[in-house]
Amino acid sequence: MRRWRFNNASPTLYTNYIPRIQFADNNKVLDLHRGSAANGNEIHIWPADGHFMGNKTWRLERLSNDTGEAFTEEFQGIGARLQHDLNAKTEKLARNELELAGCWNDIADKDKEITRLSKVLAKKEQELSGQRLKLTECEDTIRSLRQQLKMKGAVAHPGEPGQTIQLCNRQSHLENKVSQQQAETANLQAKMDRFEYLMSKMINRDQGSSH
User: Fold this and answer.
1) What SS3 state is found at 92?
2) Sequential pLDDT tens for the chain (211 residues)
3) At 19, which helix (H) or strand (E)?
4) Taking the CB of residue 29, how many other CB atoms lie within 10 A of it?
5) In the chain, what are the domain boundaries?
6) What's the number of CA atoms in the CB half-sphere (13 Å) around residue 70?
């Protein structure tokens, strides 16, 4: 990295006791061509002892507009407003990130609840399937008993009234049982329908809020 230093020039043919910029590594001096005729836009470089050297061309680049001077009140006000806007946007972004994190947590909780409810629904469906199977078995038994009673009625034997009464009682008991199971099955089906409706409504609400 090149190092420059500011010092006072010794009196020579070309310089008086004036501040100058000197390249410390090889004793070269920058000259703004006295800043008069060229308005400071022409730059020369000389040996520090004042002797001439070959011409050199330099390409200058603007590094910054910062001169070290204090900003005016107008610029200070603009800077304060920009800083205020930046702080407000940063705070808003932080709030949005917190809200987004909360939404993801809610979605995770809803997913867990949906998983739990799905297991409950599967269990209820299994119970309903078992009830329907029992109902079918009872209906088959009732049809068989009715067929037996019909046959007993067609072939009447004086010594078999007790057996007929037993068949009638068994049929009546099974019919009552079937009626009870039908009611339980209908109640369970209604609960499952309500459960599926609420579960579907919750899933649709979560999907709508996630978009």
Assistant:
1) helix
2) 556 665 555 555 455 545 566 665 666 666 655 555 555 556 666 666 656 555 555 666 777 777 666 667 777 788 889 999 999 999 999 999 998 888 888 888 888 887 887 888 888 788 878 877 877 887 777 777 777 767 766 544 444 555 555 656 666 666 777 777 777 777 777 777 777 777 777 777 766 655 5
3) strand 19-23
4) 20
5) 4-47, 74-210
6) 3
Q: How far is CA 166 from the centre of its chain?
A: 70
Phi, psi of 47 (to 5 degrees): -65, 150
pTM: 0.37
**In Å, how far from its chain's centre is CA 141?**
59
Contact predicate 199/117, CB 8 Å: yes
For residue 59, report the phi and psi dihedrals to the nearest 5 degrees.
-105, 120
Domain 74-210 carries which CATH code?
Answer: 1.10.287
Looking at the DSSP bridge assignments, the partners of residue 78 are: none
Contact 138, 177 (CB under 8 A): yes
In the numeric block, the tokens 């407000």 are attached to 88
